[in-house]
Write a structure and sequence with these properties.
Layout (H helix, E strand, L loop, with lengths): L3 H11 L10 E11 L6 H15 L2 H7 L5 E10 L5 E10 L2 H12 L12 H13 L6 E8 L9 H7 L6 E7 L7 H9 L7 E4 L5 H22 L7
Parallel strand pairs: 1-2, 1-4, 4-5, 5-6
Antiparallel strand pairs: 2-3
Helix pairs in contact: 2-4, 2-8, 3-8, 5-6
């Protein structure tokens, strides 16, 4: 039997009409996590939100977002800090047009942080992501994109989150903000956070560099999913 991915590839290459093709397919559920722990001051938080909003509508990101005709990306954003401080910035929305993307970016830009005085509970942030993916639209792939400027210092570590929450089929990437030296955030993210095939860490020198790093990261994530949508998920052993 010809698989769905092979049919999709043939349809895109030759204009074949697929059953139900009028309904767009979601190729990627992309969940973005923003650090609002006490190490992030008000100016840095503004750079983070504004940087993400501008990155989402950057020309190269839009090209990657809409690179597979007929397919969509589901997008959501949440903020995280302490054990119980996780809140939605942007709830799940299917990005099916540039207008929808601009509206999502505007919602991020207009958002305000919910907390400013809590530590960095990265394991809890991962656990919360698992609950958000439970109510995400059905998509071929799922990616969690975690931004942060510090190491886990409250609650359980990422390893326990991966052990106890259903995150096995989710790719987790990291955006490490500053923290070189004794607290090497990028090295910590590579060792403790990222997970899944092709997972990677993008680095921002500081919050002023956040927008550039986020643009680069989004393009890489969206292009990988665009290629994967044609190839299809790797078959499970059996």
């Amino acid at each position: 039997m010809v698989g769905r991915a092979a049919l999709l590839a043939a349809a895109l290459a030759g204009g074949i009409a697929l059953p139900g093709a009028a309904a767009a397919t979601c190729r990627l559920a992309l969940l973005l996590a923003l650090d609002i722990s006490s190490s992030v001051d008000a100016a840095e938080d503004a750079l983070q939100r504004g940087g993400l909003a501008r990155a989402l509508v950057a020309p190269e990101v839009q090209r990657a977002m809409f690179s597979v005709p007929g397919d969509t990306v589901a997008l959501a954003v949440y903020e995280w800090s302490g054990r119980y401080q996780q809140d939605m910035v942007l709830d799940w929305v299917l990005i099916d047009s540039p207008e929808t993307l601009r509206a999502a970016a505007a919602e991020v830009a207009a958002s305000a942080r919910s907390y400013a005085e809590f530590p960095t509970a990265l394991g809890y942030a991962l656990g919360h992501a698992a609950t958000l993916f439970d109510r995400a639209p059905p998509c071929l792939f799922r990616t969690l994109d975690v931004s942060g400027d510090g190491l886990n210092n409250d609650g359980f570590a990422p390893a326990l989150a991966y052990k106890h929450f259903p995150l096995d089929e989710i790719t987790v990437n990291g955006l490490a903000i500053g923290g070189a030296g004794e607290d090497d955030v990028a090295a910590y993210y590579r060792a403790e956070l990222i997970r899944g095939p092709g997972a990677f860490v993008e680095e921002a020198a500081d919050f002023d560099d956040f927008e550039r790093a986020m643009r680069r990261k989004l393009v890489r994530e969206l292009r990988a999913a665009a290629i994967g949508a044609l190839d299809g998920p790797a078959p499970r052993g059996g």
